[in-house]
Design a protein that fits this description.
56% helix
Length: 87
Amino acid sequence: MNVLQMIKGILGTDLLVDVPPDRMRLDDSLRDVYGLDSLGYSELRVRCEQVFGITVDDDHFSPEHFSTLGGVQELVERLLKDKETVG
């Protein structure tokens, strides 16, 4: 399973987003389309850290990265790549 599919799974299973994974698009707003509030954003951050074994520091936990599904995907993929480079 790829990063995007895993994030969609987190949104559907853990955060109980009503949008089916096959209808989730990269430019979907996490707030407007999926209904995430501040707690939802925090839960998404924690679940991504747990599932992918990464750390989303406060600089990355920003609207730049957490506004859309695609933004979260890009961040996770970059942090995974950085982790491979260091490890």
